[in-house]
Amino acid sequence: PAAPSIEEIIPEPGGFSVRLAWISDGGANPESFLCRVYSIQGSDPIAEGTVSGLTQGQGVVGISGLVDGLSYVVACIARRTSSSPYSYVIESPASSPSSPVTAGTQTTVTTTLATPSPAASAPAAPTVSSAVVSGDRTVTITVQINSDGGSPVTSYQCQSVEDAALVGISSTPEVAVAGLTTGLEYSFSCRVSNAVGHSAQSGAPSRKVKVCPSCQNNATCARGAPGPGSVWGCDCPEGFTGPLCAQRSCPGNCSNAGDCNHKTGQCSCWSGVSGASCSELEPLQAPL
């Protein structure tokens, strides 16, 4: 059991009445209290008293045989009996010694024992605050701790809901997940860990994040646009083409009658046609 607290010491002729309380440590309640009295200079007890039949971990211990006018200190323990597999007495640590109190003098000494700290546990499931594209095929997720369980969080782990093999681990709340596929959408769930263990996965995954290609020439990333991937691609402005809109387009695609130079955006027309888009037929020449 945990150590009891000395709530009051009431001096009486030839002794004391000691009022005690016991703070639960999650185990069985004590069955009795034992208090020992020491002289100011001595290390061995000179008197003791017990009380049993406690009600809700509280009791008063009477101590007699002391000399009125002399000062003493008191320390107490809690006891209970274990019967499995053998009967033996379990004693708590001793309470902190009281301040000196004089027998036979009507004064009251009060001390209080602090409530024991609860044991640490694994953290609670975290919350995914945000997920944003932070680099080439990389998303950074920000994780919010809801409870660390009484032990500092030391690890943050996030993974893709769509592909569990895509995982990022960090010692800070900013977790980067790399290796994503350009053009697809991803959402992420996370867990955190401390010295006791791991939390459950975050209750709700992040919003879906689009992993766009690196579009060029002021092109925009659009759903269903042509380009790498099957969901998001580059929507090219007029005059540009290609998966990343990095190539110049030729007028009318050279009317399928010429070759387009994607560096200059000019057509090289085949024989018999001409014009900027190779759409003009050249006049036939009479044979000589």
Automatic annotation (TrEMBL):
- Using the chain's own numbering, where are the disulfide bonds? C236-C245
According to the entry, every stretch annotated as the EGF-like domain falls at 208-246
This protein's superkingdom?
A: Eukaryota
Q: Gene3D superfamilies per the record?
A: Immunoglobulins, Laminin
Q: Which UniProt keywords apply?
A: Disulfide bond, EGF-like domain
Concerning InterPro entries, the annotation shows: EGF, FN3_dom, FN3_sf, Ig-like_fold
For the keyword Disulfide bond, the answer is: yes
Residue ranges occupied by any Fibronectin type-III domain in the UniProt entry:
122-214
The identity of this protein, by name, is Fibronectin type-III domain-containing protein
Q: Whose protein is this, by species?
A: Polarella glacialis
